[in-house]
Amino acid sequence: MAVFQLDKDLWFPDPTLGEEDGLIAVGGDLSVDRLLLAYSNGFFPWYSFRHRKEPWWYCPLQRFVIFPKEIHVSHSMQQFINQNHYTCTINKDFEGVIHGCATAQNRDAEEGAWLGPAIIKAYTELHRQGFAASVEVWEKQADGDRLVGGLYGVNLGSSFFGESMFSLAPNASKQALIHLARMFEILGGRLIDCQFETPHLRSMGGRYIPYKEYIALIRQS
Questions:
Q1: N or C: which end of the chain has fewer CB within 10 A?
Q2: How far is CA 94 from the centre of its chain?
Q3: pLDDT in tens, 51-93
Q4: Three-class secondary structure of residue 149 per DSSP
């Protein structure tokens, strides 16, 4: 097992050579070209922005994903959606969503916070160039709609690589994910990469697939 040092050239090592937790490389940058190369091969940056001066890159060999057609919506959650508490949009307020993901529940004050200024700048540029997308969840209030949840990630072909989600009101992040899965399936989407398992994502249909199957799906798109 090894961790490789990246340089200014655009390359990534063989992910099968990495650490057990998926760490495979450090260094490089967060340019659009490098990020697109990374996601096209299953890599993503994840590091504590207060403690690391350069990106850490991960590529786990067991990938936790949701197939859009397999999204699990509980009876109670479907009832909640049917009550029209919220309205969902796509790409209406990417910057609001990424900042919400960074700061909700004081995440940016946590010791290992990863969604810092460099990540925000890089993914906002990805969005500007058409490679990153957001789902917004709005709650109607007397003074106008308020952003109460959402998610963002990278969209390449028929694959969506989820980065983060947040919720300031009950079920807001769940509704964002359900909206993403349903709309993505309609548009021909085949795979939502969740990066890491959480009980929340597992309850909504997330499951592991091996890297070989995962990368084949990405490359088909």
A1: N
A2: 13
A3: 998 999 999 999 999 999 999 999 999 999 999 999 999 999 9
A4: strand
Furthest C-alpha separation in the chain? 57
Q: How many CA atoms lie within 13 A of 206 on its CB side?
A: 21
Burial class (CB in 10 A: 0-12, 13-18, 19+), 36: middle
Q: What is the number of alpha carbons within 13 Å of residue 15 lying toward its C-beta? A: 22
Answer yes or no: are the C-beta atoms of 48 and 60 closer than 8 Å. Answer: no
Q: Residues 6 or more apart from 142 whose CB is under 8 A from it?
A: none
User: Which tens digit of pLDDT belongs to each residue from 97-138?
Assistant: 999 999 999 998 888 899 999 999 999 999 999 999 999 999
Spatial distance between the Cα atoms of 151 and 136, rounded to a whole number of angstroms: 7
User: Are the beta carbons of 167 and 116 closer than 8 angstroms?
Assistant: no
Extract the runs of DSSP E, i.e. beta strands, from 75-177.
86-90, 132-141, 144-156, 159-167
Residue type at 58?
A: Y
| C-alpha atoms less than 13 angstroms from C-alpha of 136 in its C-beta half-sphere | 18
Edge-to-edge order in the sheet of strand 191-193: 86-90, 132-141, 144-156, 159-167, 191-193, 62-66, 207-210
Structure tokens at 195: 């990066």
Distance, CA of 117 to CA of 122 (rounded, Å): 9
pTM of the complete model beyond 0.85:
yes
Reduced to 3 states (helix: H, G, I; strand: E, B; else coil), residue 126 is helix
